[in-house]
Write a structure and sequence with these properties.
309 residues; alpha+beta; six-stranded mixed sheet; 2 helices; rod-shaped
């Protein structure tokens, strides 16, 4: 029997009857939509569970990135235990099991050791942890079967240990490490002081006379001749009494004593030799502000060491 639509270009159907081209065109519009929906279903199913991946050395030691929105698939084997390792500073606060009789669970520090017991050990597990970096929630889907190759890493789902990795924390740690490295470079780099005041004059033994004297608004820099021995440096208080002053020598500034303050009068003593150094631009005698630094964005912190009892 001839089909009534024989005048339309033939496209064979299952029953041998031609299908009108217009019908095929309408159907073809839906094909990409159905294919897209199918792909979405497949993708959703593929990413519903996250399976730990094998390490570079032993395939039974596996790793997985922490994602609070993912459920981790763990496969256990009867007669074998699995060690789940969380962050180094995490403390396990709660473990909840869907079937408490199906698995043996032993929390230790930041580890959980699990071992399947029941023949149908399919259940879920939720683990809550806490640390100085915040709390974490871990969700697992647990299943188990007998190993076909004993303790060997075949099939690929044999898991002796599962270690959680934390990319965001690692990235933050690397960033802080880089900042500390940059700060260290700046701290140990040569920071030339800026001359704020050179208005100094002296009275006394010229053999103790320095080559140059200036301050940068915080410290006083006294440079001597390379052939001179450094004298002892004292400051004169408002009561006209002398007292030793905190000072240091920076290898970046040879032959220079750095007095950690700005004083109205300093006294140099070496044996019987004495020289007084006067600061003509001195306003008021103040100790150096230890919270400041000549390095931008760097603050000093004065630490007090406790004496041993």
């Amino acid at each position: 029997m001839q089909c009534f639509s024989c005048s339309i270009p033939r496209r064979t159907r299952e029953n041998g009857c031609p299908v009108p081209f217009a019908v095929l065109k309408n159907i073809s519009r839906w094909i990409p939509i159905f294919m897209g929906m199918t792909a979405m279903c497949i993708c959703t199913e593929a990413f519903a569970l996250e399976t730990p991946h094998s390490g570079h050395f032993d395939r039974r030691v596996k790793h997985i990135n922490y994602n609070p929105q993912q459920v981790v698939k763990l496969v256990g084997h009867y007669g074998f235990s699995t060690d789940i390792e969380f962050g180094q500073h995490e403390t396990i606060t709660q473990v909840a099991m869907g079937d408490t009789d199906a698995w043996a669970i032993t929390p230790v520090a930041n580890h959980i050791f699990i071992k399947p017991k029941a023949q149908k050990a399919v259940t879920n597990m939720t683990v809550l942890t806490d640390s100085n970096k915040g709390s974490h929630v871990y969700n697992f889907e647990l299943s188990a079967h007998w190993s076909q190759h004993g303790a060997h890493p075949r099939p690929n789902d044999m898991m002796f240990q599962v270690q959680f990795l934390y990319p965001l924390q690692l990235k933050d740690s690397q960033r802080k490490k880089q900042q500390r490295h940059q700060l260290s470079q700046r701290l140990y780099s040569v920071q030339a002081p800026k001359v704020a005041n050179q208005n100094y004059f002296y009275k006394g033994d010229a053999e103790l006379l320095p080559v140059s004297v200036f301050d940068d608004g915080r410290f006083t820099y006294i440079t001597f001749n390379g052939k001179q021995d450094f004298p002892a440096v004292y400051t004169v208080g408002s009561d006209d009494k002398e007292s030793l002053v905190n000072s240091n020598i920076n290898p970046a500034f040879p032959y220079t004593i750095i007095v950690q303050r700005i004083a109205k009068q300093l006294v140099f003593r070496q044996g019987n030799k004495v020289l007084c150094l006067f600061n003509r631009s001195f306003g008021s005698e103040q100790a150096a502000d230890y919270s400041t630094s000549n390095i931008s964005k760097v603050k000093r912190q004065l630490k007090v060491l406790k004496a041993d009892k």
